[in-house]
Amino acid sequence: RLIANDLWQAVDRKELQLHYQVQKAVHSGETIGYEVLLRWHHPSRGTIPPSEFIPIAEECGAILPIGEWVLREACREAATWGNEQKIAVNLSPVQLANADVADLVHRVLLETGLSPRRLELEITESTIIGDKERALATLRRIKAFGVTIAIDDFGTGYSSLETLRAFPFDKIKLDRSFMSEVEASPEAKAIIRAILALGHTLRVPVLAEGVETRSQLDILLDEGCDEAQGYFLGRPVPVGHIRPAMEKTA
Ligand code: G
Ligand code: G
Ligand code: MN
Ligand code: NA
């Protein structure tokens, strides 16, 4: 309870902060964009990771104002970059179930002046599993603006293939559990290869998450993976750490 009460006030008290983690093209090494990851600096408990507070925020509804703040803040930031790099924002199932989320995205794009094609929304399969028809209708509206949709944590859900068939995603994000096992497990490597083949048959680029070593990146290069994200390429960092890179590409 205490945490939920604090969460409702976290935005107003300016306790939330965004971190940015780079996403790169595997072959060229070029920066495609950044995933936005939320951090909560609680006044007495210190920094609380999203894995702990997002589920609580979803349960109590505070994810709606928090998610709105994240979207606006990320779009406002990316609009200052003067390049074509994308910003990838995680969208909670609770936000997607809320009928207004397409209007919110539209409003924030107008307000910030960010080009819609520079915004990507990351959704997990569980997001679609809820009220499927409604979620699909909302996602189609958002896609019609030119915003792209990535399916996050792919390979961990219950109905990956059905989800892919039912909805035209713009990117597949391969769950990081596959990367952590790729060197030790021929099965993990075979699954990565199969998902890459699936993505490429559907003409959808695949991003591998959780790339922590040079040799993992080399495997991805060999296998023809499109994009990668992970500690080896860059940790999630506050925006001050990436702004200098923006000046060089601007
Ligand atoms: O940053 P990482 O370390 O701990 O994030 C853990 C989880 O929290 C990830 O699954 C990520 O998708 C989720 N997450 C991070 N930031 C946000 C956010 O702004 N909104 C939502 N809904 N989830 C987020
Ligand atoms: O579920 P989602 O992909 O949205 O969340 C990204 C999460 O993965 C964040 O918590 C982020 O801190 C974490 N992460 C990013 N890169 C790596 C990595 O190379 N290794 C591990 N173990 N976690 C990572
Ligand atoms: Mn994500
Ligand atoms: Na993920």
UniProtKB/TrEMBL annotation:
Lineage: superkingdom: Bacteria
Keyword Transmembrane: yes
Signal sequence coordinates: none
Keywords: Membrane, Transmembrane, Transmembrane helix
Gene Ontology CC: one annotated term: membrane
Coiled coil: none
Start and end residues of each EAL domain: 1-250
Protein name, per record: Diguanylate cyclase (GGDEF)-like protein/PAS domain S-box-containing protein
